[in-house]
Amino acid sequence: MEHLTTAQAAFVVGAPLDLFKKVVERAPIKPQLVKRGGRNIRQFGQAELVFLHAYDELKQALTPKSQSEFYEALRSSLKRGLAKEVVFGKQRYDIGQHLVFVERKLKELDKLTAQIDLSGKEPLIRGTQIEAHRIAALLDAGVTVEDVMRDYPSLKEQQIVAARVYAEAHPKAGRPYPKQTAKAAMRAADLSALDD
């Protein structure tokens, strides 16, 4: 498994990015730090993803010290290919459901990301000239999938979902996209003054 960025890991764990970042600060995990563009970037592996998906349960069942012991045992178990149960001290913890969830979300992320063309300056929905972040901005503003399909008739529902997932996992820096389509803006505009 490749290591994921913070935003990608938040998608896989199923948590909003802001909340995910706070949990990462509190949890006893050690994401790998990699230098990119002069900045340290956190990268998350399978052990971190499984731990973070199980974190709510772990907080209730284990002390902070035991959480750290569990994390180290989890890392060791996954390296050795022992997956279903983590043994640490005199305790055992079943991670099967968390592994299944993380693996399913990783496959979903891969499948959806494959629908985005990354060969140009902006990520485009594959087979179109439509920016993935533009469609995601519309959905974030409350525009329905059906409305997006009406204003962008060449898009299929799966492409729209892929754009949203891609944008969630790869947030866009810089100026945001408009929160409505040009067609929607024209429909909403009162153009009756032009009739005079």
Blueprint of the fold:
Elements: H1 6-13, H2 17-26, E1 32-36, E2 39-43, H3 46-61, H4 64-79, E3 85-88, E4 91-94, H5 96-113, E5 116-117, E6 124-125, H6 132-140, H7 145-151, H8 157-169, H9 182-188
Antiparallel strand pairs: 1-2, 3-4, 5-6
Mean pLDDT: 87
Question: What is the 3D form?
Answer: elongated
Radius of gyration: 21 Å
Return residue spans where pLDDT drops below 50 for at least 5 consecutive residues. none
As a percent range, the share of strand residues is: 5-15%
H/E topology pattern: HHEEHHEEHEEHHHH
Strand count? 6
Count of helical segments?
A: 9
Cross-sheet strand order for the largest sheet: 1-2
The end-to-end distance, rounded to whole angstroms, is 64 Å
Helical proportion? 40-55%
Describe this structure in words.
This is DUF433 domain-containing protein. By secondary structure, the protein is mainly alpha-helical. The chain is 53% helix and 11% strand. The protein has helices spanning 6-13, 17-26, 46-61, 64-79, 96-113, 132-140, 145-151, 157-169, 182-188, and strands at 32-36, 39-43, 85-88, 91-94, 116-117, 124-125. The strands form 3 sheets. Strands 1-2 form a two-stranded antiparallel sheet. A two-stranded antiparallel sheet has the order 3-4. Strands 5-6 form a two-stranded antiparallel sheet. Strand 5 (116-117) and strand 6 form a beta hairpin. Helix 5 (96-113) crosses helix 8. The radius of gyration is 21 Å and the shape is elongated.
What structural keywords apply?
mainly alpha, 11% strand, two-stranded antiparallel sheet, 196 residues, 9 helices, single chain, 53% helix
